[in-house]
Structures are given as structure tokens and as C-alpha cells.
Design brief:
Length: 263
Amino acid sequence: MSLPSPIEAAVPRPPVLPPSSALFLDFDGTLVAIASRPEAVVVEPWVLPTLQALHDRLDGALALISGRPLAQIDALLSPLRLPAAGVHGVERRDADGRVRVQAGVPPAEVLALVEQLVTRHAGLRLERKPSALALHYREAPQLAELCASAVLAAMRPHVEEWTTLIGKCVIEVKPRRASKAHAVTDFLATPAFAGREPVFVGDDATDEDGFSAVQLAGGWGVKVGEGPSGARFRLADPRAVHQWLADSLAIPSQPAATLKDPA
């Protein structure tokens, strides 16, 4: 096992979560281990009861902020229907259950390019999302540079309205006006989250703007896993996230609880 870099080693573990927090959690790589395909993730038994306990402890100031669509999040976490932002902020469900969607259609030539790449190269996969698309290359990591350069080139004429996100073995195209930072800011303007100390926990480069948003608002970010980050704190993996949340809640590390719909 490789030793952490000096920068990573210097980043401390986060303190226990204050009850006055507004907590924003990424999903893949934070609450669940990343799988070879998005549909193959395993939601460990601790996740649902811990999220339920957090929702109750924080008086509803808990939101998931993910690249996944809301429909996928809800299916994986049923019966919970928490406040959440899907597709990096394209979709947002507030604490009152109201859903807002930023409508849009990815540029036709970008979609055509991605379809061609998927047809020509085994291991690539296109995922169509609300107002967005994702090109997954986890099963063909040797194609990372080819995928990135091709998509970025096709996106050049559209950079005023659309943006490209390069995450862990995925390249995503989404509306520029949607971001995890904007989702955090919008949540903090709602009654359930207003006036609280915001905390954002995520594992990917796509979470960095979320870290920046909460830290600009007087809170703090928590980077999960390795790699450079602007977050103030760090946890090793989803298991460490679980232990930190359990410590914050003062609950056993394998909680058992009857779930209820917080909506």
C-alpha cells in the first residue's frame, strides 16, 4: 500500500458533525464504493438507517448531491426520499418535496460523437441523463485520453452554455448553469438549511466546487480518498465515512432502525 503524499498526510480527519450543520453528501465513492457500472453498486446495510438518523438529528438539513439522476438515487435508497440534487444540480428536490429541473438537450454533434466512440470501442458506455450525458470508460481505462480529447474538441463551439466534467473514469456533458456549487447555494437559501454550518462530503474532482461553496459560506469540505483537493478535511473511503457519521450520531457502527419516509 502506497503512503499518502505530504499534502494528503497533512489533511486532518473531520471533527464530529455538529447538530447545527447542513450536511451535503455525494453518493458514489462516498456512501457506496464505486462499481464497474453505476447499476452494479452495493448499498451496504448501514447506509439507509444512518441517513435516516442524520435526517432526524439535523432537523431535515441533509441533502444528497450526486451525478446520478434523482430516479436512480431514490431506487437505490428506497423507501427514503431525501432532499437531493441529481445530475450535478440539473435536478433538485427540496425538503418540501418540490422538484426543479433545468431543461436542456446536449449538443447533437457531441451526442453523435459519443455514440460513435461507443460503437467503435469495446468497454465504452453512453449514459443518457436528464439534460446531460455521460461517457463511461471504467472498463476501458486505456481510452481515457482519447475520450477526453474527442469530447473536449466537440464541445468547443458550445462552451458558453455547456460544460464538460471529467470524473473518475467518466466524462460528463451538462448545462453550464447547473453545478454542485449552485445546488448547495440553492439549498442554503431554503428554510430547512438556512442559517446552518454547511458541510460537503465527496470523493471526486466533480465535488470540488461543492467544497468551495460550503467553505465560502463558512463551512467545510471533506475529501474522501486520495488526490489533491481544496477540502479542509479528509476521510479514506466510504467505510471511514460511515465511522465518522456513526461517531457524529453517537450510534453503533452497525445501526438497526425502522426506516420511514422523511418527505
